[in-house]
From TrEMBL:
Record protein name field: Amidase domain-containing protein
Keyword terms: Signal
UniProt cross-references to Pfam families, sorted A to Z: Amidase
Ranges where the Amidase domain occurs: 44-447
Record carries keyword Nucleus: no
Signal peptide: 1-21
Species of the source: Lactuca sativa (Garden lettuce)
Domain of life where this protein originates: Eukaryota
Length: 505
């Protein structure tokens, strides 16, 4: 694209965003508009389909739209008009965009961004999709992602897939959108969807949320079902919302948590953490009051020379204090250098071995597919690597996974090492200092959370000197979502940092 043409496109994008800034409505605001007959679900879906048509050719955040989305919207409108009981549920009639690794038993594909799974037929909706449908939510479509959730090769660009192309950061188009749940973050940031859902193994919700100035919740592993989601590592994988506000993310979380027979071991264990009365009760403007929050400066509070971020985050720490939080500063996580190295911690060994087992099981469960094993996927990529849309970024992670043979002594030792690092590091620091949460910039803490199965919430916090968004992350021990919601919502209400995309070149 020539520079003058690019400039015109940027102006058009910016004007579109500015024109529809009032459309950044929250779920609560949309529900009020429904109830006052100022808006219906069909009109809302039509709006988002229009925004996708205008913005997606540049941003590439949406992979497919649901051809039945308007039909689902009409049904929601009829149910609301008839006062059907489920029409009182928070997500009823709200369009939801799903990462393209989350299975839907409808006309949409589920491919993880790969042509290898195009046309494959899933046996059923993913567990969280069943819960969304039960609530009356509208499946708007599938969002782009880093192919195979960033697990094909170390050289694959973040936010890129053969089917979706390269996703763009709506704030600074040349900046990374981060992955692997890039599409959900891009789409809600740019108002191409009301809310979205992504997945995280290590950073795949928190990092896109940070880079796209949206809210991402990484739930405790097992709190949300992984059944019907193209897997990476069952020990680490979790499913969570990516939205524009903490309240919207909490409404989505409340809808998708809970027991699922098809992921029964993990969801049964984690169901003990679900609070009586749900999660929305923790949306408190004074949620920071009395919370003990740890600050781990090394290595997280490190910023490049000349960056404005050091002062911004110091100001945020002061805001936390002003709002009643008690900060315990200069804490250290024992073994943080080892934890941050996936090979040294054992995370890589576990994920690679589990991937082969889990992806083979997923592929064999499909009703129809041209690939039935990791071996088949590798062969597919080799066969079509010369095609422009597929590109030859290699598949070194796939090949490493193919070379594994189940969970042997090496993997068992890695699992034990991750447990020890977690116990002696993050958990010990949290317990000894009686912390409710840890605060850190960006998503740099994600390896710590990944190996422990811990939850976190990323909230918009800043924009760097170039206009690229930066999030603030609040993390805690397993089941601490209620406290993290109070803290995150309190911070969001006190700072109100998020602004609409700028579409800078």
């Amino acid at each position: 694209m020539t520079p003058p043409m690019l400039f015109l496109v940027l102006l058009a994008l910016l004007s579109l965003s500015t024109c529809h800034a009032h459309k950044e409505a929250t779920i609560r605001e949309l529900r009020i508009a429904f109830n006052q007959n100022r808006l219906n679900s069909r009109q809302l879906v039509e709006f988002y389909l229009g925004e996708i048509k205008k913005l997606n050719p540049i941003l590439k955040g949406v992979l497919e739209v649901n051809p039945d989305a308007l039909y689902e919207a009409d049904r929601a409108d009829r149910e609301r008009g008839a006062n059907v009981p489920r029409s009182l549920v928070d997500l009823h009639g709200i369009p939801v965009l799903l990462k393209d690794s989350i299975a839907t038993k409808d006309k949409l594909n589920t491919t993880s961004g790969s042509f290898a799974l195009l046309g494959s037929i899933v046996p059923r909706d993913a567990g969280i999709v069943s819960k969304l449908r039960k609530s009356g939510a509208i499946i708007l479509g599938k969002a782009t992602l880093s192919e195979w959730s960033n697990f094909r090769s170390l050289s694959t660009p973040s936010g890129w897939s053969p089917r979706g192309g390269q996703g763009k950061n709506p704030y600074v188009l040349s900046a990374t959108p981060c992955g692997s749940s890039s599409g959900p973050a891009i789409s809600v940031a740019a108002n191409m969807a009301a809310v979205s859902i992504g997945t995280e193994t290590d950073g795949s919700i928190l990092c896109p949320a940070s880079f796209n100035s949206v809210v991402g919740i990484k739930p405790t592993v097992g709190l949300t079902s992984r059944a019907g989601v193209i897997p990476v590592s069952p020990s680490l994988d979790t499913i969570g919302p990516i939205c524009r506000t903490v309240s919207d993310a909490v409404y989505v979380l409340e809808t998708i948590v809970g027991f699922d027979y098809n992921d029964r071991d993990a969801t049964k264990k984690a169901s003990q953490y679900i609070p009586y009365g749900g999660y929305t009760q923790f949306l408190k403007a004074d949620g920071l009051k009395g919370k003990r929050i740890g600050v781990v400066r090394n290595p997280f509070f490190v910023f490049s020379n000349g960056s404005n971020l050091h002062q911004v985050f110091e100001n945020h720490l002061q805001t936390l204090r002003h709002e009643g939080a008690i900060l315990i500063d200069n804490l250290e996580i024992k073994g943080i250098t080892t934890i941050s190295n996936a090979t040294a911690s054992g995370e890589a060994a576990v994920a690679i071995a589990e991937f082969k087992i889990a992806i083979n099981a997923y592929l064999k469960s499909l009703v129809g597919s041209s690939v039935r094993s990791l071996t088949d996927i590798i062969a597919f990529n080799n066969k079509f690597s010369d095609l422009e849309k597929i590109k030859n970024f290699g598949q070194d992670i796939f090949l490493a996974a193919e070379g594994t043979n189940g969970i042997g002594d090496l993997e068992k030792a890695a699992i034990a090492n991750m447990a020890r690092l977690t116990r002696e590091g993050y958990e010990k620091m949290m317990v000894e200092n009686r912390l409710d949460a840890v605060v850190s910039p960006r998503a740099d803490i994600s390896p710590v959370l990944a190996i422990g199965g811990f939850p976190a919430i990323s909230v918009p916090a800043a924009y760097d000197n170039k206009g690229v968004p930066v999030g603030i992350c609040f993390s805690g021990l397993k089941g601490s979502e209620p406290t993290l919601i109070e803290i995150s919502y309190g911070f969001e209400q006190a700072t109100n940092v998020r602004k609409i995309p700028t579409f800078l070149p």
